[in-house]
Specification:
The complex is a heterodimer of chains A (168) and B (365). Chain A is of the alpha+beta class and 168 residues long. Chain A has four helices and seven strands, in the order αβββββββααα. Chain A has two domains: 111 residues, [NiFe]-hydrogenase assembly chaperone, HybE (Yope Regulator, Chain: A, 2-Layer Sandwich), CATH 3.30.1460; 35 residues, no CATH class. About 9% of the residues of chain A have low confidence. In chain B, strands 2-1-3-6-7 form a five-stranded parallel beta sheet, with helices on both faces. Chain B has a two-stranded antiparallel sheet with strand order 4-5. In chain B, a hairpin with a 2-residue loop joins strand 4 and strand 5. Chain B is globular. The chains are: A alpha+beta (168), B alpha/beta (365).
Chain lengths: 168, 365
Protein backbone atom coordinates (compact mmCIF):
# COMPACT_ATOMS: atom_id res chain seq x y z
CA UNK A 1 0.00 0.00 0.00
CA UNK A 2 1.52 3.34 -0.98
CA UNK A 3 2.42 5.78 1.77
CA UNK A 4 0.25 8.75 2.53
CA UNK A 5 2.39 11.83 3.19
CA UNK A 6 0.50 13.36 6.09
CA UNK A 7 -0.60 10.08 7.59
CA UNK A 8 3.03 8.89 7.69
CA UNK A 9 4.15 12.08 9.42
CA UNK A 10 1.32 11.77 11.93
CA UNK A 11 2.14 8.10 12.61
CA UNK A 12 5.84 8.95 13.14
CA UNK A 13 5.09 11.70 15.65
CA UNK A 14 2.50 9.54 17.42
CA UNK A 15 5.08 6.77 17.91
CA UNK A 16 7.71 9.12 19.28
CA UNK A 17 5.25 10.99 21.51
CA UNK A 18 4.47 7.66 23.08
CA UNK A 19 8.18 6.89 23.49
CA UNK A 20 8.63 10.24 25.23
CA UNK A 21 5.80 9.52 27.66
CA UNK A 22 6.95 6.01 28.46
CA UNK A 23 10.56 4.93 27.89
CA UNK A 24 12.19 8.38 27.94
CA UNK A 25 10.09 9.68 30.84
CA UNK A 26 12.04 11.75 33.36
CA UNK A 27 15.49 11.42 31.79
CA UNK A 28 17.80 14.41 32.31
CA UNK A 29 18.90 14.32 28.67
CA UNK A 30 15.49 15.65 27.54
CA UNK A 31 15.19 19.33 26.66
CA UNK A 32 11.96 20.42 28.41
CA UNK A 33 11.42 23.28 25.94
CA UNK A 34 10.90 20.93 23.01
CA UNK A 35 8.16 18.56 21.94
CA UNK A 36 7.82 15.86 19.28
CA UNK A 37 7.16 17.29 15.85
CA UNK A 38 7.71 16.16 12.27
CA UNK A 39 8.93 18.83 9.88
CA UNK A 40 8.53 19.03 6.12
CA UNK A 41 7.63 15.41 5.32
CA UNK A 42 7.79 14.74 1.58
CA UNK A 43 8.42 12.01 -0.97
CA UNK A 44 11.86 11.36 -2.38
CA UNK A 45 12.16 8.59 -5.00
CA UNK A 46 9.10 6.81 -3.60
CA UNK A 47 10.24 6.99 0.04
CA UNK A 48 8.90 9.26 2.74
CA UNK A 49 11.57 11.68 4.02
CA UNK A 50 11.23 14.21 6.82
CA UNK A 51 12.87 15.55 9.94
CA UNK A 52 11.80 14.27 13.32
CA UNK A 53 12.29 16.65 16.25
CA UNK A 54 12.10 15.19 19.75
CA UNK A 55 13.38 16.56 23.09
CA UNK A 56 16.35 14.19 22.86
CA UNK A 57 17.33 14.15 19.18
CA UNK A 58 16.75 15.58 15.73
CA UNK A 59 16.93 12.98 12.97
CA UNK A 60 16.49 12.93 9.25
CA UNK A 61 14.09 10.00 8.84
CA UNK A 62 13.44 7.89 5.75
CA UNK A 63 10.46 5.53 5.76
CA UNK A 64 10.70 3.26 2.72
CA UNK A 65 7.80 3.16 0.28
CA UNK A 66 6.43 -0.13 -1.09
CA UNK A 67 8.88 -0.28 -4.02
CA UNK A 68 11.77 1.31 -2.19
CA UNK A 69 15.39 0.89 -3.22
CA UNK A 70 16.29 1.57 0.41
CA UNK A 71 15.03 -1.40 2.36
CA UNK A 72 16.89 -1.03 5.65
CA UNK A 73 18.97 -4.03 6.65
CA UNK A 74 19.17 -5.38 10.19
CA UNK A 75 19.09 -2.88 13.07
CA UNK A 76 22.31 -0.87 13.30
CA UNK A 77 23.51 -1.36 9.72
CA UNK A 78 24.48 1.80 7.90
CA UNK A 79 22.97 2.30 4.44
CA UNK A 80 24.19 5.26 2.39
CA UNK A 81 21.36 7.20 0.75
CA UNK A 82 21.76 9.78 -2.00
CA UNK A 83 20.15 13.23 -2.01
CA UNK A 84 20.69 16.13 -4.42
CA UNK A 85 23.02 17.69 -1.81
CA UNK A 86 25.15 14.55 -1.48
CA UNK A 87 25.26 11.11 0.07
CA UNK A 88 24.43 10.62 3.73
CA UNK A 89 24.98 7.64 5.97
CA UNK A 90 21.84 6.48 7.75
CA UNK A 91 21.27 3.91 10.49
CA UNK A 92 18.74 1.15 10.03
CA UNK A 93 16.09 1.19 12.75
CA UNK A 94 12.80 -0.44 13.58
CA UNK A 95 9.72 0.38 15.61
CA UNK A 96 6.62 -1.79 15.91
CA UNK A 97 4.13 0.71 14.50
CA UNK A 98 6.45 2.03 11.78
CA UNK A 99 8.23 -1.11 10.61
CA UNK A 100 11.83 -0.82 9.41
CA UNK A 101 13.03 2.72 8.69
CA UNK A 102 16.31 4.67 8.40
CA UNK A 103 17.45 7.60 10.53
CA UNK A 104 20.39 9.98 10.20
CA UNK A 105 21.37 11.89 13.34
CA UNK A 106 21.43 15.67 12.93
CA UNK A 107 21.55 16.80 16.56
CA UNK A 108 21.55 14.92 19.85
CA UNK A 109 21.27 15.72 22.68
CA UNK A 110 19.15 18.84 22.12
CA UNK A 111 20.37 20.99 25.02
CA UNK A 112 21.28 24.09 23.02
CA UNK A 113 17.95 24.71 21.32
CA UNK A 114 16.22 27.43 23.36
CA UNK A 115 12.73 26.66 22.03
CA UNK A 116 10.70 24.65 19.54
CA UNK A 117 10.69 27.45 16.96
CA UNK A 118 14.49 27.46 16.66
CA UNK A 119 14.57 23.68 16.23
CA UNK A 120 11.85 23.83 13.57
CA UNK A 121 13.61 26.66 11.72
CA UNK A 122 16.84 24.67 11.70
CA UNK A 123 15.04 21.54 10.47
CA UNK A 124 13.29 23.47 7.68
CA UNK A 125 16.61 24.90 6.53
CA UNK A 126 18.20 21.45 6.50
CA UNK A 127 15.33 20.01 4.42
CA UNK A 128 15.62 22.85 1.90
CA UNK A 129 19.40 22.40 1.65
CA UNK A 130 19.11 18.64 1.16
CA UNK A 131 17.15 19.01 -2.05
CA UNK A 132 19.44 21.57 -3.65
CA UNK A 133 22.30 20.12 -5.68
CA UNK A 134 25.66 20.70 -4.05
CA UNK A 135 27.50 23.36 -6.03
CA UNK A 136 30.83 22.27 -4.64
CA UNK A 137 30.97 18.86 -6.30
CA UNK A 138 34.73 18.80 -6.57
CA UNK A 139 36.27 15.33 -6.99
CA UNK A 140 37.50 15.23 -3.42
CA UNK A 141 34.07 15.67 -1.87
CA UNK A 142 31.80 13.51 -4.03
CA UNK A 143 32.97 9.95 -3.94
CA UNK A 144 29.88 8.57 -5.61
CA UNK A 145 29.51 10.76 -8.64
CA UNK A 146 30.30 7.92 -10.97
CA UNK A 147 32.69 7.63 -13.84
CA UNK A 148 34.23 11.06 -13.42
CA UNK A 149 35.97 9.76 -10.32
CA UNK A 150 36.53 6.15 -11.23
CA UNK A 151 38.84 6.00 -14.21
CA UNK A 152 39.72 2.36 -13.54
CA UNK A 153 37.67 -0.74 -14.28
CA UNK A 154 37.35 -3.75 -12.05
CA UNK A 155 38.85 -7.13 -12.92
CA UNK A 156 35.35 -8.54 -13.27
CA UNK A 157 34.32 -5.80 -15.68
CA UNK A 158 37.44 -6.39 -17.75
CA UNK A 159 37.02 -10.14 -17.98
CA UNK A 160 33.31 -10.03 -18.72
CA UNK A 161 33.61 -7.16 -21.19
CA UNK A 162 30.87 -5.38 -19.27
CA UNK A 163 32.84 -2.13 -19.07
CA UNK A 164 32.39 -1.70 -22.84
CA UNK A 165 28.65 -1.98 -22.54
CA UNK A 166 28.45 0.26 -19.46
CA UNK A 167 30.40 3.11 -20.98
CA UNK A 168 28.16 5.78 -22.44
CA UNK B 1 67.01 20.79 1.83
CA UNK B 2 69.72 18.65 3.30
CA UNK B 3 68.76 15.50 1.45
CA UNK B 4 67.23 14.59 -1.89
CA UNK B 5 65.95 11.18 -0.87
CA UNK B 6 62.21 10.83 -1.43
CA UNK B 7 59.66 8.84 0.59
CA UNK B 8 59.46 6.35 -2.24
CA UNK B 9 63.21 5.77 -2.25
CA UNK B 10 63.20 5.23 1.49
CA UNK B 11 60.41 2.68 1.16
CA UNK B 12 62.17 0.82 -1.64
CA UNK B 13 65.33 0.75 0.42
CA UNK B 14 63.27 -0.77 3.24
CA UNK B 15 62.27 -3.60 0.90
CA UNK B 16 58.74 -2.44 0.10
CA UNK B 17 57.75 -3.42 -3.45
CA UNK B 18 56.28 -1.07 -6.02
CA UNK B 19 53.07 -3.07 -5.88
CA UNK B 20 52.83 -2.72 -2.10
CA UNK B 21 53.63 0.96 -2.39
CA UNK B 22 50.70 1.58 -4.74
CA UNK B 23 48.42 -0.50 -2.55
CA UNK B 24 49.48 1.61 0.40
CA UNK B 25 48.61 4.78 -1.53
CA UNK B 26 45.08 3.62 -2.25
CA UNK B 27 44.59 2.39 1.34
CA UNK B 28 45.69 5.79 2.60
CA UNK B 29 43.33 7.63 0.27
CA UNK B 30 40.48 5.53 1.64
CA UNK B 31 41.54 6.00 5.27
CA UNK B 32 41.62 9.76 4.78
CA UNK B 33 38.15 9.77 3.25
CA UNK B 34 39.47 10.99 -0.11
CA UNK B 35 38.18 9.95 -3.52
CA UNK B 36 39.89 6.88 -5.04
CA UNK B 37 41.56 9.07 -7.66
CA UNK B 38 43.60 10.63 -4.85
CA UNK B 39 45.73 7.47 -4.65
CA UNK B 40 47.58 8.76 -7.69
CA UNK B 41 48.16 12.13 -6.06
CA UNK B 42 49.56 10.48 -2.95
CA UNK B 43 51.81 8.19 -5.02
CA UNK B 44 53.13 11.12 -6.98
CA UNK B 45 53.80 13.16 -3.85
CA UNK B 46 55.71 10.31 -2.26
CA UNK B 47 57.78 9.68 -5.38
CA UNK B 48 58.85 13.27 -5.79
CA UNK B 49 58.87 14.89 -2.35
CA UNK B 50 61.93 14.75 -0.16
CA UNK B 51 61.35 12.73 2.95
CA UNK B 52 60.33 14.71 6.03
CA UNK B 53 61.94 13.42 9.21
CA UNK B 54 59.81 12.90 12.30
CA UNK B 55 61.18 13.10 15.82
CA UNK B 56 59.04 11.30 18.37
CA UNK B 57 59.53 12.44 21.97
CA UNK B 58 58.12 10.79 25.10
CA UNK B 59 57.25 12.72 28.25
CA UNK B 60 55.04 11.56 31.10
CA UNK B 61 53.02 8.82 29.44
CA UNK B 62 52.29 5.10 29.41
CA UNK B 63 53.37 4.33 25.80
CA UNK B 64 49.84 3.30 24.88
CA UNK B 65 50.00 5.70 21.91
CA UNK B 66 53.09 3.90 20.54
CA UNK B 67 51.46 0.54 21.23
CA UNK B 68 48.38 1.61 19.30
CA UNK B 69 50.39 3.11 16.45
CA UNK B 70 52.50 0.03 15.74
CA UNK B 71 49.33 -2.05 15.54
CA UNK B 72 47.82 -0.20 12.61
CA UNK B 73 45.20 -2.39 10.96
CA UNK B 74 47.05 -3.04 7.75
CA UNK B 75 50.60 -4.33 8.37
CA UNK B 76 51.66 -2.53 5.23
CA UNK B 77 50.63 0.81 6.66
CA UNK B 78 52.71 0.44 9.80
CA UNK B 79 55.67 -0.90 7.79
CA UNK B 80 55.53 2.01 5.44
CA UNK B 81 54.90 4.67 8.03
CA UNK B 82 57.55 3.30 10.35
CA UNK B 83 60.06 3.20 7.53
CA UNK B 84 59.29 6.84 6.91
CA UNK B 85 59.53 8.10 10.45
CA UNK B 86 60.96 5.83 13.07
CA UNK B 87 64.61 5.74 12.21
CA UNK B 88 65.38 9.25 13.31
CA UNK B 89 64.52 9.44 16.98
CA UNK B 90 62.01 7.61 19.12
CA UNK B 91 62.82 6.48 22.66
CA UNK B 92 60.72 3.36 22.23
CA UNK B 93 61.29 2.30 18.63
CA UNK B 94 64.83 3.36 17.72
CA UNK B 95 67.78 0.96 17.80
CA UNK B 96 70.33 3.37 19.28
CA UNK B 97 70.57 4.23 22.97
CA UNK B 98 72.30 6.51 25.45
CA UNK B 99 74.61 9.27 24.25
CA UNK B 100 74.44 7.98 20.69
CA UNK B 101 70.68 8.52 20.65
CA UNK B 102 70.87 12.01 22.08
CA UNK B 103 73.52 12.85 19.47
CA UNK B 104 71.07 11.84 16.72
CA UNK B 105 68.56 14.29 18.13
CA UNK B 106 71.05 17.16 17.88
CA UNK B 107 72.07 16.09 14.40
CA UNK B 108 68.51 16.10 13.07
CA UNK B 109 67.84 19.47 14.62
CA UNK B 110 70.80 20.99 12.76
CA UNK B 111 70.50 19.08 9.51
CA UNK B 112 66.74 19.50 9.05
CA UNK B 113 66.27 22.84 10.78
CA UNK B 114 62.68 24.01 10.24
CA UNK B 115 61.88 20.91 8.18
CA UNK B 116 61.06 18.13 10.59
CA UNK B 117 57.83 17.25 12.37
CA UNK B 118 57.87 16.86 16.13
CA UNK B 119 55.52 14.19 17.47
CA UNK B 120 55.07 14.31 21.24
CA UNK B 121 53.66 11.46 23.27
CA UNK B 122 53.00 12.41 26.89
CA UNK B 123 53.45 15.77 28.52
CA UNK B 124 55.96 17.77 30.58
CA UNK B 125 55.58 18.16 34.37
CA UNK B 126 56.57 21.65 35.52
CA UNK B 127 56.71 21.28 39.33
CA UNK B 128 60.17 21.15 40.96
CA UNK B 129 61.71 22.47 37.75
CA UNK B 130 60.44 19.48 35.78
CA UNK B 131 62.23 16.88 37.90
CA UNK B 132 59.36 14.40 37.63
CA UNK B 133 60.38 13.45 34.10
CA UNK B 134 64.07 13.20 33.25
CA UNK B 135 65.36 12.28 29.78
CA UNK B 136 69.12 11.91 29.24
CA UNK B 137 69.82 13.49 32.62
CA UNK B 138 67.75 16.63 32.00
CA UNK B 139 64.11 17.60 32.55
CA UNK B 140 61.87 16.59 29.65
CA UNK B 141 60.47 20.10 29.36
CA UNK B 142 63.92 21.38 28.33
CA UNK B 143 64.30 18.74 25.63
CA UNK B 144 60.80 19.48 24.39
CA UNK B 145 61.39 23.23 24.11
CA UNK B 146 64.74 22.79 22.36
CA UNK B 147 63.48 20.32 19.76
CA UNK B 148 60.28 22.28 19.19
CA UNK B 149 62.25 25.46 18.50
CA UNK B 150 63.43 24.14 15.11
CA UNK B 151 60.46 22.00 14.05
CA UNK B 152 57.91 22.73 11.37
CA UNK B 153 54.84 21.51 13.25
CA UNK B 154 53.96 19.57 16.39
CA UNK B 155 51.71 16.52 16.67
CA UNK B 156 50.33 16.03 20.19
CA UNK B 157 49.70 12.29 20.39
CA UNK B 158 47.04 11.14 22.79
CA UNK B 159 45.15 12.74 25.65
CA UNK B 160 48.35 13.37 27.66
CA UNK B 161 49.94 15.65 25.09
CA UNK B 162 46.59 17.12 24.01
CA UNK B 163 44.85 17.73 27.36
CA UNK B 164 46.97 16.42 30.25
CA UNK B 165 45.17 13.13 30.94
CA UNK B 166 45.59 11.20 34.20
CA UNK B 167 48.81 12.82 35.40
CA UNK B 168 47.13 16.23 35.12
CA UNK B 169 43.97 15.05 36.94
CA UNK B 170 43.14 16.72 40.23
CA UNK B 171 45.27 17.50 42.26
CA UNK B 172 47.97 17.21 39.57
CA UNK B 173 50.95 16.86 41.96
CA UNK B 174 53.64 17.18 39.27
CA UNK B 175 51.82 20.05 37.54
CA UNK B 176 51.78 18.16 34.26
CA UNK B 177 50.56 20.38 31.41
CA UNK B 178 49.60 19.65 27.79
CA UNK B 179 52.11 20.47 25.07
CA UNK B 180 50.32 23.61 23.85
CA UNK B 181 50.86 25.25 27.27
CA UNK B 182 54.62 25.01 26.77
CA UNK B 183 54.99 25.37 23.00
CA UNK B 184 53.09 28.42 21.84
CA UNK B 185 54.80 29.48 18.62
CA UNK B 186 54.29 26.39 16.39
CA UNK B 187 51.24 24.87 14.69
CA UNK B 188 50.02 22.06 16.94
CA UNK B 189 47.73 19.27 15.83
CA UNK B 190 46.03 17.36 18.65
CA UNK B 191 45.23 13.69 18.22
CA UNK B 192 43.52 12.90 21.55
CA UNK B 193 42.41 9.53 22.85
CA UNK B 194 43.84 7.16 25.41
CA UNK B 195 45.26 5.91 23.13
CA UNK B 196 44.20 7.39 19.77
CA UNK B 197 42.98 4.90 17.15
CA UNK B 198 45.90 3.48 15.14
CA UNK B 199 44.31 4.33 11.79
CA UNK B 200 43.74 7.89 12.95
CA UNK B 201 47.40 8.22 13.93
CA UNK B 202 48.78 6.81 10.67
CA UNK B 203 46.16 8.78 8.72
CA UNK B 204 47.15 12.09 10.29
CA UNK B 205 50.87 11.54 9.90
CA UNK B 206 50.58 10.31 6.30
CA UNK B 207 48.43 13.28 5.42
CA UNK B 208 50.99 15.69 6.82
CA UNK B 209 53.94 13.95 5.17
CA UNK B 210 52.39 13.53 1.73
CA UNK B 211 50.50 16.79 1.37
CA UNK B 212 53.00 18.79 3.38
CA UNK B 213 50.35 20.63 5.36
CA UNK B 214 48.03 20.21 8.32
CA UNK B 215 44.66 18.56 7.82
CA UNK B 216 41.69 20.80 8.56
CA UNK B 217 41.46 21.36 12.32
CA UNK B 218 38.52 22.20 14.54
CA UNK B 219 38.62 25.02 17.07
CA UNK B 220 40.34 22.84 19.61
CA UNK B 221 43.06 21.84 17.16
CA UNK B 222 41.85 18.33 16.34
CA UNK B 223 41.71 17.04 12.74
CA UNK B 224 38.07 17.34 11.66
CA UNK B 225 38.23 14.29 9.43
CA UNK B 226 38.52 12.04 12.51
CA UNK B 227 37.13 14.17 15.35
CA UNK B 228 34.23 15.88 13.55
CA UNK B 229 31.56 13.60 14.95
CA UNK B 230 30.54 12.23 18.29
CA UNK B 231 30.59 8.52 19.10
CA UNK B 232 26.81 8.94 19.58
CA UNK B 233 26.25 10.24 16.03
CA UNK B 234 27.42 7.04 14.36
CA UNK B 235 26.91 4.46 17.10
CA UNK B 236 25.30 1.26 15.86
CA UNK B 237 23.20 1.25 19.09
CA UNK B 238 21.85 4.70 18.30
CA UNK B 239 18.43 3.45 17.11
CA UNK B 240 17.88 2.15 20.66
CA UNK B 241 18.72 5.57 22.11
CA UNK B 242 16.28 7.26 19.77
CA UNK B 243 13.61 4.73 20.68
CA UNK B 244 14.29 5.05 24.43
CA UNK B 245 15.48 1.48 24.90
CA UNK B 246 18.21 1.43 27.54
CA UNK B 247 20.31 -1.05 29.48
CA UNK B 248 19.16 -0.50 33.09
CA UNK B 249 21.52 -2.92 34.77
CA UNK B 250 24.51 -4.99 33.68
CA UNK B 251 23.30 -8.31 32.30
CA UNK B 252 19.63 -7.37 32.21
CA UNK B 253 17.41 -8.19 29.25
CA UNK B 254 18.27 -4.85 27.60
CA UNK B 255 22.00 -5.62 27.81
CA UNK B 256 21.40 -8.97 26.14
CA UNK B 257 19.45 -7.26 23.38
CA UNK B 258 22.23 -4.69 22.83
CA UNK B 259 20.24 -1.64 23.97
CA UNK B 260 21.74 1.84 24.44
CA UNK B 261 24.25 2.22 27.31
CA UNK B 262 23.42 5.86 28.13
CA UNK B 263 21.90 5.02 31.52
CA UNK B 264 25.02 2.99 32.38
CA UNK B 265 27.17 6.10 31.97
CA UNK B 266 28.10 5.99 28.29
CA UNK B 267 29.83 9.27 27.32
CA UNK B 268 29.14 8.76 23.61
CA UNK B 269 26.78 11.78 23.43
CA UNK B 270 29.58 14.18 24.42
CA UNK B 271 32.69 12.52 22.99
CA UNK B 272 34.27 13.43 19.67
CA UNK B 273 36.19 10.51 18.16
CA UNK B 274 36.05 8.01 15.31
CA UNK B 275 35.54 4.83 17.41
CA UNK B 276 32.00 4.14 16.18
CA UNK B 277 33.07 4.37 12.52
CA UNK B 278 36.73 3.28 12.35
CA UNK B 279 36.52 0.94 15.38
CA UNK B 280 39.53 -0.82 16.92
CA UNK B 281 41.77 -3.82 16.33
CA UNK B 282 41.47 -3.96 12.59
CA UNK B 283 37.92 -2.67 12.72
CA UNK B 284 36.74 -5.60 14.84
CA UNK B 285 34.97 -3.77 17.65
CA UNK B 286 34.92 -0.78 19.99
CA UNK B 287 33.97 -0.39 23.68
CA UNK B 288 30.23 0.03 23.13
CA UNK B 289 30.15 -3.02 20.84
CA UNK B 290 31.79 -4.98 23.68
CA UNK B 291 28.96 -3.98 25.99
CA UNK B 292 30.54 -1.15 28.02
CA UNK B 293 29.80 2.55 27.68
CA UNK B 294 32.28 5.02 26.20
CA UNK B 295 34.39 6.64 28.97
CA UNK B 296 35.11 9.72 26.87
CA UNK B 297 38.89 9.25 26.87
CA UNK B 298 39.48 11.68 24.02
CA UNK B 299 37.77 14.60 25.77
CA UNK B 300 39.51 17.29 27.79
CA UNK B 301 39.78 16.44 31.49
CA UNK B 302 37.88 13.16 31.30
CA UNK B 303 39.39 11.95 34.59
CA UNK B 304 37.85 14.84 36.49
CA UNK B 305 34.33 14.58 35.07
CA UNK B 306 32.93 12.19 37.65
CA UNK B 307 32.32 8.48 37.50
CA UNK B 308 32.47 6.55 34.26
CA UNK B 309 29.07 5.15 35.30
CA UNK B 310 27.20 8.42 35.90
CA UNK B 311 25.07 9.32 32.92
CA UNK B 312 25.60 12.51 30.99
CA UNK B 313 23.39 15.36 32.11
CA UNK B 314 25.40 18.33 30.92
CA UNK B 315 24.55 18.31 27.27
CA UNK B 316 26.03 20.41 24.56
CA UNK B 317 24.44 19.94 21.18
CA UNK B 318 26.56 21.87 18.81
CA UNK B 319 29.73 20.98 20.65
CA UNK B 320 33.09 22.37 19.75
CA UNK B 321 32.07 23.79 16.43
CA UNK B 322 29.13 25.51 17.89
CA UNK B 323 30.38 28.32 19.97
CA UNK B 324 29.13 30.67 17.27
CA UNK B 325 25.71 29.03 17.14
CA UNK B 326 25.39 29.01 20.88
CA UNK B 327 26.37 32.61 21.41
CA UNK B 328 24.16 33.60 18.51
CA UNK B 329 21.07 31.88 19.83
CA UNK B 330 21.60 33.15 23.36
CA UNK B 331 22.28 36.73 22.26
CA UNK B 332 19.45 36.99 19.77
CA UNK B 333 16.86 35.61 22.16
CA UNK B 334 14.55 35.09 19.23
CA UNK B 335 14.81 32.89 16.18
CA UNK B 336 16.90 34.44 13.48
CA UNK B 337 16.96 32.84 10.07
CA UNK B 338 20.72 33.30 10.01
CA UNK B 339 21.15 31.31 13.22
CA UNK B 340 19.00 28.46 11.96
CA UNK B 341 20.96 28.54 8.71
CA UNK B 342 24.24 28.35 10.59
CA UNK B 343 23.11 25.42 12.75
CA UNK B 344 21.67 23.67 9.69
CA UNK B 345 24.85 24.17 7.68
CA UNK B 346 27.02 22.81 10.48
CA UNK B 347 24.75 19.74 10.82
CA UNK B 348 24.92 19.00 7.11
CA UNK B 349 28.66 19.55 7.12
CA UNK B 350 28.94 17.12 10.02
CA UNK B 351 26.95 14.31 8.45
CA UNK B 352 28.84 14.71 5.17
CA UNK B 353 32.19 14.83 6.91
CA UNK B 354 33.71 11.58 5.75
CA UNK B 355 33.21 12.30 2.09
CA UNK B 356 36.36 14.39 1.87
CA UNK B 357 38.51 16.91 3.59
CA UNK B 358 40.92 19.79 3.60
CA UNK B 359 40.52 23.34 2.45
CA UNK B 360 43.08 25.67 1.03
CA UNK B 361 43.06 28.04 4.00
CA UNK B 362 44.75 25.34 6.05
CA UNK B 363 47.94 25.41 4.03
CA UNK B 364 49.87 26.71 6.95
CA UNK B 365 52.63 24.21 7.73
Amino acid sequence: MPLNKDETAERLSRVFRRIQETRMHGLPILNPNLFVQVVDGRFHAGDWVGILITPWCMNLVLIPGPDSAHRPGPLGTKPSIGFPAGDFEFLASEEAELGPFCACSLFSPMGDFPDQASAVATAETIMRTLFVADADQSPRTGECSGDRLAPGISRRQLLSGRFRRDRP
Amino acid sequence: MATTETFYEVMRRQGISRRSFLKYCSLTATALGLAPSFAGTIAQAMETKPRTPVIWLHGLECTCCSESFIRSAHPLVSDVVLSMISLDYDDVLMASAGHQAEAILDEIRLKYKGQYILAVEGNPPLNQDGMSCIIGGRPFVEQLKEVAADCKAVISWGSCASWGCVQAAHPNPTQAVPVHKVITDKPIIKVPGCPPIAEVMTGVITYMLTFDRLPELDRQGRPKMFYGQRIHDKCYRRPHFDAGQFVEDWDDEGARKGYCLYKMGCKGPTTYNACSTTRWNNGVSFPIQSGHGCIGCSEDGFWDKGSFYDHVTNTNVFGIEANADKVGIAAAGTVGAAIAAHAAASAIQRIKQRAGEHHEENDQT
